[in-house]
Structure formats: C-alpha cells, structure tokens
Amino acid sequence: MADTNPYSTFMTSTKKMHVKLLFAAFSLITGCAPAPVVPEPTPEPGSTTVYLVRHAEKANLREVDPSISEEGQARAKALASRLGAAGVAAILTTQFRRTQETAEPLATTLGVTPEIVHAGRVGDTDSTLAAVLRHRGKKVLVVGHSKTIPPLIQALGGPKLPDICESQYSNLFIVYLPPSGSSQMVRQTYGKADPPLGAGCSSL
What we know:
Elements: H1 15-30, E1 48-54, H2 70-83, E2 88-93, H3 97-110, E3 115-116, H4 124-133, E4 139-144, H5 149-155, E5 171-177, E6 184-189
Parallel strand pairs: 1-4, 2-3, 2-4
Antiparallel strand pairs: 1-5, 5-6
C-alpha cells in the first residue's frame, strides 16, 4: 500500500545509516553484542531532538492500568535527573498511569504540563508523530510502551527496531531531526541497569 503519511518528508534517511544504526540498536536491546560507542551528534540550529523512553517498572502486573513500583519511582527520578538540564520543552505520555507517573518528576521540575496521546489503536503512531512535530525545533520527551516506542522511532526517520523486551526499562533513545536531511538516532541508558536477557525474552 502506498505511503499516505503527510509527514513522510521528515522520515528520510540513508540506507547506509539505517543499516548501521539498526545493527547497533538491535544488538543493544537484545544483549547479543557488547554496546558499541555511538557518538552523539551535535544538533544543527533548528533541529528537533526527541527523547524516547518506555515507562518505568510497574507495581502490579495483574492490573489493567497499574502504577509504577518503588523501583519505577526511582527510575522516574533518574529520568528527571538525566533530562532536567537538557532543555526539554514538551512532554508526551499516553493515557496510561505508568507513563504519566514516569514523566511526573521531570514535568514537575520543569513546570511542563504533559500532553496525552492515545496508545493502542491503529493510527496512534501517526497521531503521536504529529504531536511531536507540533514542537518542531524544540526538545521533546515521549514516554511510551514497549510496542509503541520502536514504531515511533521508525516514523521519525530512525531504524526499524524490535519491540522492547519486558524486562528492559533503561533504554533512552534520542532521535535528531535536522531542518533538512536525514534523521539520526543514538541509544543511551539511564537509571538502574536492566537484568540480562533470557532466551525467552517476551514483550508487552
């Protein structure tokens, strides 16, 4: 089916860059190889910087809409510490409490009211992309889910990544959208390190 996304002009990237970043990111998420040193690019004037994280650890896995646990609260504070001086101007969360609670310490520190974008429906990636691009030229934090962060990275012009595994919470993806040309993605971590992945890694 032809791409009818009106934001496709922002999603261009060279094949070489995609292959290189896909290999690096996949290896990092799955734990199949040592983490390579990926230099963080210097954004051009007018660039948009998008920080993307999965929500912090959940308190009760049996609840439909659980809060984050004490461990998750510590991670949320670590996120606020990591991005507190980064210049974040907008924060996007989903309708679920775990994303809102993950963003809360940073939002409180910055005095920013998070915007809620829906997750779980067909077309939600495009809607979230549109919300991000309304803040073009600024720095934006997106707090999402294991299955929503990878497609949004791809929509922003980054590589196609697998779903984030259930036990993984420390990934901090950063996508740079210059005023023109190709997007770039780097992956960092924050807070407590994740446990090693088992052979039967499952995603949300």
